[in-house]
Design goal:
Distance between the termini: 53 Å
Strand order of the largest sheet: 1-2
Helix content: 40-55%
Shape: elongated
Structural class: alpha+beta
Radius of gyration: 18 Å
Number of helices: 4
C-alpha cells in the first residue's frame, strides 16, 4: 500500500480562518494545485463579499438604499442565506427583517 501525500493550507478569510486539505493527486491536477486553487477561489469570494472592504460588492449594496443590480453569485449567496434561515425556522417576515437589519448595520 502506498500512502497518499496530504497537502493542507490555512489562511485568514471571511473574518476567521479557512483551510483546505487534499489527499492524493487527481487526474486533472496535483493535490498542491488543488489546494492552491481552493485558496484562490475562497480569497476571491472573500474580496467580493466582505463587509470590511469598501470596494466589495457587499459593501456597495449596503451603501446604496435603492434596489441595485448584483452579480449572479451574490444572488446565490442571498438565496442560500434565506434558505438557511428558513431551515432554522425563521418565518419569511423575520428573514426579511434579518436581511434588512444586516443591510442597515453594515
Amino acid at each position: 500500500m502506498i500512502a497518499e501525500r496530504e497537502i493542507a493550507d490555512a489562511f485568514a478569510c471571511f473574518g476567521g480562518s479557512c483551510g483546505t486539505i487534499v489527499r492524493g493527486d487527481g487526474e486533472a491536477r496535483s493535490a498542491a494545485d488543488a489546494v492552491a486553487l481552493a485558496r484562490r477561489r475562497l480569497l476571491a469570494w472573500h474580496d467580493r463579499f466582505t463587509r470590511f472592504e469598501p470596494g466589495s460588492e457587499l459593501s456597495s449594496v449596503n451603501r446604496d438604499p435603492r434596489d441595485v443590480a448584483v452579480s449572479f453569485f451574490f444572488q446565490i449567496r442571498h438565496r442560500a442565506t434565506d434558505r438557511e434561515l428558513s431551515r432554522k425556522g425563521f418565518p419569511a417576515d423575520v428573514r426579511r427583517l434579518q436581511l434588512a437589519a444586516h443591510r442597515e448595520c453594515h
